[in-house]
Amino acid sequence: MELETTEVQVIPADKSKINKILRVALILGVVTAIEFVIAFTVSAGAFRTSVFIILTIVKAFYIVAEFMHLGHEKKSLKMSILLPIIFIVFLIFILMYQGAAILEVLQ
């Protein structure tokens, strides 16, 4: 036996949620456009690589804050997620730096 629905109530769109989604898309689009401009105008080097890393971290933070709702959580939860990630990135940086130094000595 199936239930039949005869009355459908249409709920109007929540304009604030739509505006927030559009704002997030605009910010991510602007950051991506800046990355493209830098990719095609700046020659390869440490500056371009640094800018790409920084802009990628900015985009990742914004995506996590808005779409994964981490930006609206308590500070202790944010730190419990971010500090281990920062520590791991720091360890990777140290390994790369030391590995390059060892490779240079061996050559």
Which SSEs are present, and which pair or pack?
Blueprint: H1 15-41, H2 46-67, H3 75-106
Please explain how this structure is put together:
This protein has 107 residues and is mainly α. It contains three helices and no strands. The protein has helices spanning 15-41, 46-67, 75-106. α1 (15-41) packs antiparallel against α2 (46-67). The longest helix is centred in the last third of the chain and has 32 residues, at 75-106. The model has no long low-confidence stretch (mean pLDDT 85).
How many strands?
Answer: 0
Describe the main β-sheet briefly.
Answer: none
Helix content: over 70%
* Content-based structural category: mainly alpha
Q: Give, in order, the helices and strands.
A: HHH
> How many DSSP H or I helices?
3
Q: How far apart lie the N and C ends?
A: 79 Å
What does the radius of gyration come to?
22 Å
